[in-house]
Amino acid sequence: MSRYIVFDVETPNRYNDRISAIGISVIEDGRIVEEYYSLVDPETHFDYFNTKLTGISAKTVKGAPTFPEIWKKIEPVMSGGMIVAHNAVFDMGVLKKCLSAYEIEWKPYVRYICTVQVGRRELPGVSHKLDSLCDYFGIELDHHHAASDSRACAEILLRYEKAGAELRNYIRTYSLNKGMS
């Protein structure tokens, strides 16, 4: 595989069923070739905790596109390579709930790589929190900003690949069918 679609989402509240921001970094042939970021109007309430963590509020997303509007733009990108995320089960779960809430059909399952899982095997004894790994590798990070988080995750994946990690050994499958994961 030579094309990876690294993504990160921010959520407006504890339910983690809507997106307030998305960042995507596309890796082709060992380098980041494309990046995408957008605020998203989640059409729901914001919890204080999430606003404090991400800096995103109802006021911030006023006038931003909704998830169905964003999905029309990003679906071809998301369909064009191996999905990657840091703590991927979280981001995949939010994406699944968003697709379901808006009754958007995509595919029954997605193959993905989780950089936390890769790191646990490739770098034992190191904290695998995104900010800790960025400190370890010297990667710039504006934590909980989806564009920065997706780029940092992409940089981490590239570091693992360069160090000889066989990424194909870390490919997992996530079900997007309702009620399954």
How would you sum up this structure, described in words?
By secondary structure, this protein is α/β, with parallel strands linked by helices. Helix content is 39%, strand content 22%. The protein is built from 7 helices and 6 strands. The chain has helices at residues 48-54, 58-61, 67-78, 88-101, 115-122, 130-137, 146-162, and strands at 3-10, 21-28, 31-39, 82-85, 109-114, 172-175. A 6-stranded mixed sheet has the order 3-2-1-4-5-6, sandwiched between helices. Helix 5 (115-122) packs parallel to helix 7 and helix 6 crosses helix 7.
**Number of H/I helices:** 7
Helicity, as a percent range: 25-40%
Quote the distance from N terminus to C terminus.
Answer: 24 Å
Order of helices and strands: EEEHHHEHEHHHE
Please give a handful of descriptors for the protein shown.
39% helix; single chain; alpha/beta; 6-stranded mixed sheet; 7 helices; 181 residues
